Amino acid sequence: MRTWVLLCLLAAVCTAVVLPPSRTTVAECIMCKAAVKVAASKAGAEAEEFDKECQKELKIPVEHDECEKFVNEHMDQIIHALESGVAPADVCKTLHKC
Is the pLDDT of residue 97 over 50? Predict the structure, then answer.
């Protein structure tokens, strides 16, 4: 029994050391992709359009405030990345959101 517990403890410690904690959440990645989709479209980066896309893509009930907060904090960076020539598929990776 002690051996089993020791092995489990060792595995947990090794995993914690090898795998750094994720700095972003799945929701942030999804919100970033939705923001890129809106910013890259001809409609432009309108907040209402992003909010609709954000709610649709998350597929879980989140408050409007979360999507609004994300767009307020990150939309300028997303637009700048797109204007700098970063491909839409790579923007969220470049900004470390996915």
Answer: yes
